[in-house]
Write a structure and sequence with these properties.
The protein is an alpha/beta fold. It is 49% helix and 9% strand. A six-stranded mixed beta sheet has the order 1-6-5-3-4-2, with helices on both faces.
């Protein structure tokens, strides 16, 4: 099941490098925080209502054809629709909910197909950091930008969840979308993984959220790396290597294929979570993913996201 965030939050900027980013985060359904907006009668809802009224009236025959009505019949029908809606305004909400449910089901099927078709790039690209339990029974993938406030907000909960669970394979997709400093930070993180390994990458990844302050420059990155007990100069020197941009470019191409345009975006099992969700809600999705793998999907795990929208140690594509 797809879970989307509200449009509040960071809008991705077009980065100053090779891969174009598709648009801005466009949620495909509203979060609970937006339910106070005035109800707008969408064309699809109106069409459904027309059919409802037609079959609710004595003249609503199975062969009902609006195009065949005379002007007088059109006027009478319009008056009947208006009278029906005024007498039964709750139908607007009922029809809208049904339409949303059908569209969500269609998107869920499409998302499952997208994940299945791109499983190797998502779960085993050979370039992304793989942490947690590399042999875990479920895989959590997160597309991140270090300057994304929602990624920072999600960080501690994700870290605690992966540690406490003990059986989650956690993959980070470097996906800088908020400008030049985001790109520089991601290059530093990728260089750290290349020259110092996954444990050093864990320190840098956490450090960007927990302790790094100020502008992202070569000088501040050297000091940042040294402060984490790493060789900051060596990592900065490696940032210009020919292979450093490779995973970042690949992640942008993958994001475009998967219609990911905001951070954080999670992939857990066979579903997307587009936007920030609290750790306890992610835990419910983990439970549902495990249940689905065992053939007993837990239909109660349906949290809503509340934000938008942000050398690998494993090679097996296991969602």
């Amino acid at each position: 099941m797809l879970r989307n965030g509200a449009p509040a939050g960071h809008r991705p900027l077009r980065p100053p490098f090779y891969v174009p980013i598709v648009g801005t985060p466009l949620p495909q359904r509203e979060s609970l925080a937006m339910t106070t907006r005035p109800f707008l009668l969408r064309p699809a809802v109106m069409a459904a209502l027309v059919a409802t009224v037609a079959f609710a009236t004595p003249t609503g025959a199975i062969a009902f054809d609006p195009a065949a009505m005379s002007p007088a019949e059109e006027k009478a029908f319009g008056e009947a629709v208006r009278a029906y809606l005024l007498a039964n305004p709750e139908v607007l909400i009922d029809v809208s909910r049904e339409l949303d449910a059908r569209q969500a089901a269609a998107r869920e099927g499409n998302d499952r197909t997208l994940i299945a078709q791109n499983a190797s790039q998502i779960f085993a690209d050979g370039m992304s950091y793989v942490g947690g339990n590399p042999a875990g029974d479920v895989t959590l993938v997160e597309f991140i930008d270090y300057r994304c406030g929602y990624c920072k907000k999600a960080h501690e909960g994700v870290k605690d969840l992966v540690k406490a669970d003990g059986n989650i394979r956690y993959i980070v997709k470097e996906f800088p979308i908020l400008g030049e400093e985001s790109l520089i930070a991601s290059r530093f993180a990728v260089a750290t993984l290349k020259v110092a390994g996954p444990e050093a990458y864990e320190k840098v990844n956490a450090g960007f959220y927990e302790s790094f302050r100020g502008a992202v420059t070569p000088e501040t990155l050297v000091a940042f790396g040294d402060g984490l007990g790493l060789d900051g100069k060596r990592i900065v020197a490696a940032m210009d290597g020919p292979d450093i941009m490779q995973p970042i470019i690949a992640n942008h191409k993958l994001a475009e294929t998967l219609s990911i345009s905001g951070t954080p975006t999670f992939i857990l099992g066979t579903e997307f979570v587009r936007g920030y969700v609290p750790a306890e809600e992610l835990q419910k999705i983990v439970v549902a993913a495990r249940a689905e793998k065992s053939g007993a999907t837990d239909a109660t795990a349906t949290p809503e996201a509340s934000g938008p929208e942000n050398t690998a140690s494993g090679t097996t594509a296991t969602p």
